[in-house]
Design goal:
Blueprint lengths: L4 E4 L3 H12 L4 E4 L4 H8 L7 E3 L3 H6 L6 E4 L5 H10 L8 E4 L5 H12 L4 E8 L1 H7 L2 E5 L2 H14 L2 E2 L5 E2 L9 H29 L5 H11 L7 H11 L22 H12 L4 H14 L1 H8 L14 H34 L5 H7 L10 H11 L10 H24 L4 H13 L6 H12 L16 H5 L1
Parallel strand pairs: 1-2, 1-4, 2-3, 4-5, 5-6
Antiparallel strand pairs: 6-7, 8-9
Helix pairs in contact: 1-6, 8-11, 8-12, 8-14, 9-10, 11-12, 12-18, 14-17, 14-18, 15-16
């Protein structure tokens, strides 16, 4: 039995993708460096299915139809290079390698050039949806040549998530050349960081200011999930807050240590924003919030030394404050996505990828972690103006933020007054105020730069670049 596609790397994501492909009618060859994983799959979840197990790279390659299509699902970085190096001597010109992990886009660009020089084709494919998405249908973001993508597209379209009235629109479409797919996946993850942090800050405010129970907050999130905030992350937050710990009977969320992990894609998003000069403070604050949470021992020690504001009971209208938190969450979410899409636009321009921003919103409507009703509004905004400078200035979003900003400002002010950390809410609001300001304080900053470093400045009253003798003036 020869296989339609092969997959290397049988951790949970890889194994679930294999089972997804097989369930769609494809025969799949499987290989793992620890070959016992192959045997476990064939004897367990893959028993009786159209799978071809291999215990060596030559055996694996020989089991594939030509041109060979091989998906690599191993840890990003050196492990991907190691698998490619092991495969290449056994491949023929025209074979296609597919990296489906969370690789850095510059690594994908490098690998594309190196493999094309050997006559091989390479695709960097972002895959989002976690374990469940891999099995039932992920969001798929492919980058590489259109010609190589055309040969594997039927497989990936078949396994992708489907949305729409008839559940027949695939969340899978060509993104752009070389590293475009992995870059889009990285920005997806950066936005995911922002979404999660914003939800956590809403939770912190409802608990810290209003003193609501986990179940009360679950009910609030469930209600929010019926409207504009409808999303996978709001849905799972509702479920998490309603879950009890079977050992203690306490809300499960209360027995989980407040120390968050991260795998690097959020940090890459921030680094790329700095490289391209794109302001993405909310996405970056979400990364920093995780970093600060990781300093648990230091925070516990500091809590015994550092003073905060005097704590008083909330005496305002609780229902109004809950609505304000909802408005703050929604407005901040718009800012977070605006930052992510500006970053996508900058990278697309820099690398000449010609990424269709509206279409990226469609890819994220199903299968992935940030899937949400809100993405239809983003698609509509780019349909009306493909060159939209920022989502904030799209008429629909501008109106919604204007409507939400009174509650948003109240919430950020209340957080500051009560000492509840809300860095993503606050940074999103500052970003909004900065972006809507025709004049900011950078004129003084440029004067400072010119004063100490002769960096020059432009004037408001005439064209040109100028330098002023600041020291001579005051000597």
């Amino acid at each position: 039995m020869t296989a339609d596609i092969g997959l290397i790397g049988l951790a949970v994501m890889g194994e679930n993708l294999v089972l997804n492909m097989e369930s769609r009618g494809f025969t799949v060859a499987v290989y793992n460096r620890t070959t016992s994983k192959v045997d476990e799959l064939l004897a367990g979840r893959g028993k009786g299915k159209k799978l071809v197990g291999a215990h060596s790279i030559p055996e694996f390659v020989a089991s594939l139809k030509k041109p060979r299509k091989i998906q690599i699902m191993v840890k990003a970085g050196a492990p991907v290079d190691a698998v490619i190096e092991e495969l290449v001597p056994h491949l023929d010109k025209g074979d296609i390698l597919i990296d489906g992990g969370n690789s850095l886009w510059t690594d994908t660009i490098r690998r594309t050039k190196a493999l094309e020089a050997k006559g091989l084709r390479f695709l960097g494919v972002g895959v989002s949806g976690g374990e469940e998405g891999a099995l039932r249908g992920p969001s798929i973001m492919p980058g590489g040549t259109r010609e190589a993508w055309a040969e594997v597209e039927p497989i990936f379209t078949a396994i992708s998530a489907k949305v729409g009235p008839n559940n027949d629109i695939p969340c899978c479409a060509y993104v752009g050349p070389d590293g475009a797919g992995h870059y889009v996946k990285m920005v997806h993850n950066g936005i995911e960081y922002g979404d999660m942090q914003l939800i956590c800050e809403a939770y912190a405010l409802l608990e810290g200011v209003l003193g609501l129970s986990a179940q009360e907050m679950s009910d609030i999130f469930a209600e929010w999930n019926k409207g504009e905030l409808d999303s996978f992350l709001i849905e799972i937050t509702t479920n998490i807050l309603a879950t009890k710990d079977p050992e203690t009977g306490k809300p499960f969320v209360d027995v989980i240590l407040d120390k968050a992990g991260q795998k690097g894609t959020g940090a890459w998003t921030g680094q790329s924003a700095l490289e391209f000069g794109v302001p993405a403070p909310t996405l970056v604050e979400a990364v920093f919030a995780r970093s600060l949470s990781a300093q648990k021992a230091n925070r516990v020690a500091a809590s015994k030394i550092l003073a905060g504001p005097a704590q008083t009971s909330f005496t305002g209208d609780k229902t109004a404050f809950i609505a304000a938190v909802r408005d703050a969450l929604y407005a901040s979410k718009i800012c977070s996505y605006a930052q992510g899409f500006q970053l996508l636009a900058a990278a697309s321009d820099n690398y000449k990828w010609d990424v269709d921003l509206g279409r990226m919103a469609l890819l994220w409507r199903g299968g992935c972690i940030i899937r949400a009703r809100f993405l239809d509004d983003i698609f509509a905004a780019y349909q009306k103006d493909a060159k939209l400078a920022n989502l904030l200035v799209a008429p629909a979003f501008a109106a919604k933020v204007a409507q939400a900003q009174t509650g948003w400002r109240w919430v950020v002010g209340e957080a500051v007054k009560r000492g509840v950390p809300a860095p993503a809410f606050a940074s999103a609001l500052s970003y909004y105020d900065g972006y809507r300001s025709a004049r900011v304080s950078a004129n003084l900053l440029q004067a400072q730069r010119d004063y100490f470093g002769s960096h020059t400045f432009e004037r408001t009253d005439k064209a040109g670049t100028f330098h002023h003798d600041w020291v001579g003036l005051h000597s």
